[in-house]
Amino acid sequence: MTPVVVVGAGPVGLALAIDLAQRGVPVRVLDDGTPDSTEGSRAICWSRRTLAILHRLGCAEAIAAHGVQWNTGRVFFGDHEVYAFDLTGDASQRWPAFVNLQQYEVERELQRRAAELPLVDLRWRHRVAGVTPGADGVHLDVHTPDGPRSFAAPWVVACDGARSPVRGMLGLEREGQVFRDRFLIADIRMEQPFPAERWFWFDPPFHRHQSALLHKQADNVWRLDFQLGYDADPERERAPDAIAARVRAMLGADVRYTLVWASVYTFACRRMARFRHGRVLFAGDAAHVVSPFGARGANSGIEDADNLGWKLAAVVQGHAPEPLLDSYDVERVRAADENILQSTRSTDFITPKSPVSRVYRDAVLALARHHPFARALVNSGRLSVPAVLDDSPLNTPAPGASFAADAPAPGSVAPDVVLPGGGALHDRLGARFALLLFAADGDAAATAIAARLAPAVERAGTGCDIVVVNDAVVARRYGASPGTCYLVRPDRHICARWPAVDPDAILQALLRAHAAGVHA
Amino acid sequence: MSALITSPHLAAPDAFYAALIDAHRGLDAAGSAALNASLVLLLANHVGDAAVLDEALAAARSAALAAGPAS
Ligand SMILES: Cc1cc2nc3c(=O)[nH]c(=O)nc-3n(C[C@H](O)[C@H](O)[C@H](O)COP(=O)(O)OP(=O)(O)OC[C@H]3O[C@@H](n4cnc5c(N)ncnc54)[C@H](O)[C@@H]3O)c2cc1C
User: Looking at the whole model, is its pTM more than 0.90?
Assistant: First the structure.
């Protein structure tokens, strides 16, 4: 029997299926649509963290090459620029802050990769119509082109999108806030020399009292986004001539373009109370939704898949006990709350809910022109950053261990570092856990320690590779000196660190990170 | 222990008060609201300390509630 069924072949379901298959877990993916049935461009901004994950899944190169790389955002108030931000980060970064690419292109690349993996059994036109959870597995009733069929699997992951029929069939709810405002997305194709930057306007002359956004996608497609107010009529706003009036007001009366996709949307920030319900797990939009400002929807869904993949594989393959899956719930609920918080704050700034909120918003924007402090308050969307799992039960806290304040702490993603001689640190990490053991160049003692540790950590859970690191750039980034150790999970989050090698502590931390054998 | 200074701290209270009112000269209600908001933001940044700001927010809110709704 196939151990895992994934419902939904959107970006999240496909990423998860690829990850599971790469780990040797057979996975069946059921989707009610067809490979090209995605409606419109939808998500366009893919974060550095997502690119790192997609790289591990064998998809990042094509996406980065096809997409538009950008690091800079500009914010305008009225007809003045008030603020610009640069997300480039330090010089050791491997991926740009963001790559913009239409969601269907990303899905196409994920589909291509999935097709390379014999362990992925992807079935289109398969609509899940019934879900019956049991103690040992889940039974699915599925409508297929050949009539009704049933599938059973020990584990089901619902990646079936914001309306999640699986969630509905299990009678589960989401809680949160629905925002009373409407926005128009108009994706247009045009030749324009504008730079590949995120431009966001508050109250621009061409769209008074509302906000607007301009952002480049691949193949000369541009995302235009107009705030409309809650009273706007979606039907009327979607009409091509209404859109044409807005596009000309923004870009000039003589602008030449073709309309690629238009959509009038409202949004909500909400999540399910828990993402694990026995043998059914929820990921992506099925589990949580946010406003689009900040590009946190699709990116957080990819992070869900990244968090769940290794855990589900470890449980299915008998390397870890089932409670490891509860850590998926704890960690990704926490991440969803962070995304919802950020997204709600951005939304409150962009669409003030009360007269006084509007007064303060406009005061911030007016001050920002001349006073740097106010620029920090301007919130046109805080763009997706990786979750920091700093209170995860899988982490081993190390009270008193002395590390520089800017060294990466347990819970954060282990920084990738581009190496002067070519390649990057993450290239040395495999599919399993990794112990980064810092050593001086040509350090024979470190090699001996590594050899002594290897058999013990090999037997713990999914096993652990020992990676001896003697590159100065990496040591600097990690605040490390010879003997420093970092334990890195398969999803590249750090779960423990030590200033000196402590074999027993390393073994205990590795077991804890598998939710296994922790002695109280 | 209170972080917010609520004992007299202004060297020339009457002069400050006059300057505050004078800053609103010629402004309509919306203009005054905008000025007040800018002033709060400038001073908040100057203070910086989150504990002081939290106390100030709480003190201002209880003063507003004590004054009661205008109904
Ligand atoms: C109009 C619109 C605009 C958006 N714009 C942005 C944006 O600008 N930026 C951004 O970050 N995000 C945006 N998003 C959100 C982003 O697209 C989602 O966060 C992302 O698609 C989530 O991926 P997912 O895989 O969880 O779900 P989805 O991409 O929704 O995939 C779910 C899949 O499940 C399948 N499915 C559903 N029901 C069943 C069933 N019963 N049986 C089998 N299969 C089923 C569907 O066919 C679909 O393929 C937008 C979304 C919409 C709808």
Answer: yes
